[in-house]
Every structure is written in C-alpha cells, then in structure tokens.
Amino acid sequence: MVNGGGRRGAVLGETPGGDGHAATPGNGNSGRGAAPGSGRRGAASGDDGGPVRGGAGSAGLWLRWSWRDLRARLLLVVALAAVIGEGTGLYAGLTSTSRWRYESYDASFAGLNVHDLRISVDAGATVPRGRLRDVVAALPDPAAVDASAERLMFPTEIEASRPGHKEVLVRGEVVGVDLTARPLVDGISVAAGRALTTADRGRPVGVLDHGFAQANDLPATGTVRISGDREIGYVGEGQSPEYFVLPGEQPGLITQAGFGVLYTSLETAQNLAGEPGAVNDLVLTARPGTDVAALQRQLTAAVAERLPGVSTTITNRDDIASRQIMYDSIESNQALWNALALLVLVGAMFAAFNLVGRVVDAQRREIGIGMALGVPSRMLALRPLLLGLQIGILGVLAGLATGMIITAAMGAMLRDVWPLPDWRTGFQVGVFARAAAVGLLLPLVAAVHPVWRAVRVEPVRAIHASAISGSTRARARPRRRRRGFPLPGGSLARMPARNLARAPRRMLLTALGIAAAITAQVVFTGQLDTFTRTTDAAETELTSTSPDRLRVTLPSVQPVTSPTVTAVTGSPAVRGSDATLALPTRLLGPPGSAPHEPIDTLTYILDVDNRIWSPSITEGSATGGLLLAAKAAHDLGVSVGGTVLLRHPRRAGDGYQTVDTPLRVAGIHSFPVRSVAFLDAADAGSFGLAGLTNVLTVLPAPGYDQLDAMRTLAAVPGVGSVVPATGSIEEIRALLRTFVGILRIAEIAVLLLALLIAYNAMSIAMDERRREQATMLAFGLAPRRVLALAVAESALIGLLGTVIGLVAGYWTLRWTVEVLLADTLPDLGIRAVLSVPTLLTTLLLGVFAVAVAPLLSARRVRRMDVPSTLRVIE
Amino acid sequence: MRDADADTHGTGPGRADSARRDAHGTIVPVVPRIDLCGVGKHYGGGEAGVTALEDVDLRVEGSAFVVVLGPSGCGKTTLLNLVGALDIPTAGTVRLGGADLTRSSQRERREIRRHTVSFVFQSFNLFPALTARENVRFGADVAGRPRAREVTEEVLDGVGLAPRGDHFPHQLSGGEQQRVAIARALATGNPILLADEPTGELDFHTGVQILVLLEAQTAAGRTVVVVTHNREIARIADRVVELSSGRIVTDGPPPGGRVPVGDLRW
C-alpha cells in the first residue's frame, strides 16, 4: 500500500481546513484551553480521556476521511467485500437447502394427505374390494379414522420408448386408486397434463410418475406398455407421496429413471391385473390428535379378526421408504454442508484478516502522526474501523447477492433432481441474517488487531514506519540479529523469497487464505472424484463379465422347474441362464458381540462357478461362507474368517420362517453397496431353499440385443421385471445426484473465492511494493522484470498455499467421506479418492491463478510515474 | 572542474559508460556529457498548471561534483529526474552523451538508467527484504556487470560496510543505510551519480561521512550531482547551480571557493 503522500497529503491537507482543526490536538488544545502536555500524555499512554473531547464534534471529518479512503480504494474494498460475500453467500446458500427441504417435504407430504397407516396384503394376494374398509369400520373407534382408501397395486414392466428417442423399458408399478374416495389419501399431484377424474374409472388411462417421466424426458401425455403387452395412455404426469423418491432394486438405493409408476383408477388397475373387484392395499389418515400407535395396534387386531388367513403388513407413515430417505438425509447432508461452508468461511476469514489487516497496517504511519499530534487512540482507531465497517457493509451486500445467486442455482438444481409437488425455495431470512452478521463482523474483527497493534507502537516508530507492515516487528526490535539466510542466485533471483521471508506472518496468512480456498476446492472436487470412482468401481464390477446380461425378477420364489422359469430359460431370446435366489435378509453382526445396527441386505444365493457372472473377491475366497461388501464388514466390525448372524427366511413346510443363522464371512466382494451380499448355493443348505429361485440371470441369444431380449422376456407370463444387470449403477448415480449437483455449484463458487483471494492478496502486495518497484524502475529494470519478480513471489505463495491446501484438502476429504458421508449415504462403501487430474489441475490452478494475479497490475507498473511515486512516497 | 579525460563521449543511449583505463591501468568510467538546453517542465494545464523548470541551460562535462541548490519547490528534484532519464521535459532538450533523452523511447531511457546514471535517494529506498550485501548486489545485477559478486564485495568494502553486509536495512542506522544506497549506486559502475538530498535524513556527523563518500567518487572519475537545499554542502562542490522558481539564478564555483568537507558546519 502506498504509504506516502496520498495519505500524508490527506493528513496535512485535511487538518488545516474545516473540521480538521478540531481533529488535531493542537487545535483541540488551543480551542479548549487544555494543557498541551495532556494531549501528548494521552497519546503516549493510549488514554482516550485526552484533551480532544472535540473528537465527537469532528466525527464529520472522520466520516469524510473514511469516505475518501473508500473512494481511493474502491476496487480493493469491493474485491475484499466480494471475498467475504462469497464465503457468507455460499454458507447461506448451502444452509438454506436444509430449511427448504424440511419445508418442502412437509408441505408436499401434507398437501397430498399422506397416509398415517397402511395395510398391505402380502405376496401378490388380493381381497375383495370393501374387505379392507370393513376392517377399518370394525375398529373400536372408527371415528378416529379421518379418511381411508383401498388400492390395488402390482408390479409390472413399463415401456415408454418412442421412435427417435432413447429406449425406456424399466421395472415399475401400477397403482390403482379409488377416485371416488374423499378426501383422497396419498393423493396425486399433477405436474403436467391433467388429473384423473371419476370419468376415467375403468378406462385404459393413467397418470405417469412425474419424476420418472422427467428423468426419461417423456412428454406430458402419451402411451406406455405394461407387462402383458398392454397399452395404456397417460393423460398427465403426477406424483404421490410414496413415490417422491423412486426405490432402487437394492435396499438403500434409489433410482430416477429406472422405476416407473402408473397411477390409474382402481377399476382400471383391476382390469389390467385381470382381477376385477380385487384390492390389496388400504391407506388411511387418522383424525388429528389421534394416538396413531394405538390405532395401529387396534388395526392389527382388527385385521387378525376380520381377515383370518390373509397375510398382511401394517405400516405407518414413518415406514414410508421415500419419506425415510428424504428426511433422514437432511440432517446428515446439512452436517456435510456445514463442514464445507465452514471451510469456505475459514478461507474468507483468513483472507479478510490478512487483507483488512494489511490495509490497516498501511495506515500505521498516519496513525503514528496522529499519535504524535496527541489524537486519542479511540479517534485514531475510528478510521481503520470505519474502513472495516465499509468492507463489512459491502461484504453483506455481496454476500446477499452471492447467496441469492447460489440459492437460485441450488433451488433450480433441487427441483430438477428431486421433483416435488411443492418446492419451497424462498429467501431464508434467518440463515441470511446469520451470514450477514458474520460478513459484517469479520472485517471489523479483522481490523481490531492491527489497530490495536498500531496504537500501541510509539509514535516515533510509527512515523518512521515504511508502508510495509511486515517489517514493523523487526523495527520494534531493531537490533535483533536476524541475518539473511543463504540463497542461490543474484539479488533479483533472491528477491521473491526474501520478500516472503521478510513478512512470514503475512505470507502465512495469505497462504492460509489461499490454502483454505484450495482445501474447499479439493474437498468439493475430491468428492466428485470419489463419487465417480465409486460408480466406476460398481460399473467395472458389474460389467467385468457378460455385460449385456439381464436380470429377470419373478414376483415370488418358485421352483426352478416352474412354468415361468422354464419359459424364460427356454425362450429363444435366451442364450444361457443362471437361477439365483435374492433373499431379503438382515445382517446382525457377530454372534455374542455388542449389538450392532442391523444392515438390511439382499443376499444373492448363486452358483459362484457359473459362467455368466459372479462377484469379484477382493479378500478371502468365494466359497465357504458369506461374501460381504467391505462397508458391511467394516460397519459390523467383522473380517474375513469371522462370523456374522444373518436373519433370513428358511423354508418350513409350505411356508417360510425367519431364522438367525451364524455364517462365516468367506470373503469381501468388490461391489460398493453395503446392502448386497452373496452366498454360494453350496453353502446355503441350511436355508432349505435348494431348487428355488426368484431371480434369473440370463444372456441374450445371438440376434437379440439387450432391449429385444428384455421385451421378449417381459412378455413371458409370470415375469415380474426384466432389467439390465447394470441397473444398479444408475441407482448409485441417482443417489449421488443431489450431492453432485450441489458440489458442482459450490465448486464454481469456491474457485471464484480462490481467485478473488489471490487477486486481493496480490493487489495489496503490489501496492505495498510500489516504492520498491519505483526504485527498480529508477535503476533501469524493465517493467516486465519487475512484474516477473512479483509473479515469482506470487507463485511461491501460490505454491505454498496450494500445497497446504492439497494436504489439508485430502485429509478433510477423507473426513467428510469417511465420517460425514458414511452417515449420509450409509449403504455406499465410499473411499476418499483424489484423482491425479484433480490433483494436477488444483496444483496448476492454485499456483497459476495466484502467480498471474500481479499481471492484473501490469498496466499500472508499466505506466508508473516513477518520479511521482518516489517523491510521493518520500 | 576536473577533466574526465573521456575518450568515448557520444555513445548512444544504453551502454554509454564504456570504461577506460588511466595511465596507471586503473579502470575509470567514461563520463558522458550532460547537456540541458532550454529545458522547461510544466505540470498540468491552464491556471492550475505548475511550472517546475523554465528555460534551463546546463552543461556538465567530465568528472565533477555538482551541487544543485535551492529552496523547496524550486525544481531541483525535477532537474535531477530529467538528467536521470526518469522524466522528459515539456520544452527544450536533455542530452546525455550523444543521446537526446527528449526523443528517446522508454526503453532507451531505461537503458540509460541501467548503464549511465544511478540514484541515491533521500530516504534511501533500499529493498527491505534484501540484506545490505544483496542491495548492493542489486546494483551490479541490474547493470549486468560481470563478476557481480566481486564487485559487490569491493564496493561494500569501499563504503566500510563489509562487516554489516548480512544485515537487513532495518538493522542498520540511517547513515549505514545511506552508505548502502551509495554502494548500490556505485555497484552499477555507472559514471553519473545523482543524489537527491542524500543527507536530508541524517545528522551532521553522518551527513559528513556521506558527503566524503560522494566526493570521493569524483576522484574515481564519476560525475556526482547532488541536489540539496543546504547551502553549506555547496561549499564542497566543484560547481554550484542555484535554482529559484525553476530558473537557474547562479552557476559556477562556490562563493569563497571550494573547501574541504571537514570545514562544513550545519
């Protein structure tokens, strides 16, 4: 910063005129008749009770002076404010998302009258329409039920392919709702097209799930084909609470494009299912104030009494999978956003402390002059603090603008990734107020320490101080025996390193500011790397052999000789097949150990020697026990050779019973999803399930591509769904999509922050170096060499900041992935990965962006009026 | 005025400082002639404009100790800046050797500063991050002198600061800092030394030491131009150019004749 005439001129120029008289002790003394000595005492001791009681009267001077400071440094102040604004704005933007989600989820679920309790008839069975309502009517207090509706739901395959567009053939569900029920329970909001009306009862029309339609770029109206080769038109797109998030095949995963829901009238669904008058589901809402748990118990008793022999499941609102996924992730996501926002704020804080401190330090000479003139410390502190306040106010405005831009981007991203009937992405006053408070206080607090230091220095030292604060400490101990450490090269080659070594505190603060931004950048980009690596690993695993294989899911467990299985395996579309059993199981941890949180899994019982596909093993062996995901083994605290308890169904007579079986962990498979386990058929004897299957892995026959084979097999009677075996990859991607979207937005913001910090730091450094630059130019050094020195110095700071940032970023990345994301995405086994391209890009970007920052001042150096600069400074 | 016995006057801008050896084999810099003709320097325009120099004619040939004397605001520093190729006049011509600085490009003026003139400032303007030795070395490096390290040590020793070479400027006294600044200027090997109030921030005793050092440079074949408002300093000059309101009012040897530095009092 220029320490000279500009400000000295201000001091000397202001004092004689107008209010300036009142600002100087001399005038104050003479005007008020105070003893001259008292002014000096006040200054020397830092006593604010000096003679310049006229300070209050001279507030106008300080305000004008401060205003001129602002005008003189407008660009710098604005850039500083932008740094603070970036930090607080990103914080506000990230933090707003949680509030939005709570408000939007609450509103969306409430708006569609989400059910409190649900009765589901198990295993594809149905009951005549009215039977489930009879159960409700038989409750001890039927009036406790506000509304109820019977439904018929069945799985299906949905094809929504259109000529000229991508093929869409996915598993899905038909949901037949009673259009006459009032009020509707689990209503359907219409996002496009029209809603179903009572006139649609029995007609082959429906409403397609909006999320599915949007993910597959389907038009608002059209036709789809469902299992049984039936065509049905859809008149609009809509959403219902249970399908706000579409379930993945694997427990814990979700999908965007891979699961279709077709909402129709109950009568239409009955027609499509070939079961006129049948229902298999009832949803109800309780009257406000009802004890839902008690009502659930009454309902269970009523079902047992009124529907003997019918296997049902009664669940409540908290059991709705989509609701669990949506709400459970808010807090853990927020923990991640908090950590990331904190990183960004720390970067802004370092930058603010460094930059504001340096600007204030540059005023020390004038402060010294003021002290020498006897101006009280509090008055001297006013000007730099006003500067801090100016930066703070502009920072708040910048934060507001940045926050609004970021929230707008995030709002758009959330609406796109998770379509909901009622997204509320309004301005979060509380969040922004907190961010604004931080933005306002940060530069003020940053100014306090340098001001405190400045007013504590003896005036004579402050007056003699050069513009550069870095040497102040050394001046305070002028005889300290600090010597120049040896450096190679000539004086010019040494200058960048020497300049940095001269002010280590400043260098460190600058480097830490850059490092914090780089850290945030590494964390954001590293998470993207991590997610990419995770999906890549899953893809590699699933496509290692027979990448075009299909998974044919049967609606129930069947003998391998059943007609459906025979039809599938004998289909001309099938070249080879392997019968697998996918059992819903629960891992309970090692027997006898402290209770672990159980892990719901889908355990595939298969012949690991089959020629179509078997899991790769990263540790242990494929046979001799259970194959777990690394994440599952880690979470259960078990390793290869250990034993875990597996809760699973076992055949008992004609039915099944659930038992807990201790199983040896034979190996670790490489699929990154915790909820997937494998067991060799030879090791599953105790399950009593030999000769049974519910999932067939098939290879398309020559002449059939994957889609042809899917269509052919989906038409086989009794087939539940046919999906590519690589479908899980889309489910993993869908799970990560929100993160990726937010990370992309934050990544851009953080990159801008890093650039702003670099620009500010170097802009101030260039100002501080003007005297030296003028001297160099006076000695005939070319401007480009002067700039090259500045660039070299910046590059060194950039390198230091980037290296610190990379190291800190890697460890922070590990922490966010292994601690925070482990909570947020418990079913994914994610390992922190920082890819080489990210590493190199960050290194280059960090060093390069900081290094070239002085070039922004190239014009100023080239056009520097050397005589004026030297004269002004002197 | 001492004759520099120069043999290569009239070299163009840039490396105008070709040195020669005297009869004893000692390297003596060749001093280009300083020639100001009708020089004026005006800042701004209209009523607010300021005339710093007006119709100044000045010629300095060969090695000499020239003092430009005058009160504050009389144009001394402007004159020094013009001679030092830091600035160009708004009227008249400034020639250094054969080079017309008025018509030379920035690059050419830069080359003159690298190889012909060197500055000593009132407030030293040392590079605070460099040690005394490195500050001196800077002069040699900028001028592109061969054997820069040896030159540095030689010059540092010459100003009596070899033992303090590894200290940073803030660890040196004002007089020591000014000696480093002089050493830095000397290390360039340039034949013209321009000093702007070199004793302005120093006490009498230290100021005298600096003047001794500067005066010694004329014996080494350099031209030293010192700008000052201190009439006492003018007494040791070969030639005193007195300015008033931008004009030269007197130009000649000091009144009463040149005295040794030891006779100065202020």
UniProtKB/TrEMBL annotation, chain A:
It is found in: Cell membrane. Keywords: Cell membrane, Membrane, Transmembrane, Transmembrane helix. It holds the Pfam family FtsX. Residues 339-459, 749-865 form the ABC3 transporter permease C-terminal domain. Residues 1-52 are annotated as: Disordered. Residues 28-40 have a biased composition (Gly residues). GO terms for cellular component: plasma membrane. It is a multi-pass membrane protein. One of its GO terms (molecular function) is transmembrane transporter activity. It comes from the Bacteria. The chain crosses the membrane at residues 74-94, 335-356, 385-411, 431-452, 507-524, 742-765, 786-812, 832-856. Belongs to the ABC-4 integral membrane protein family. This is ABC transporter permease. It comes from Parafrankia soli.
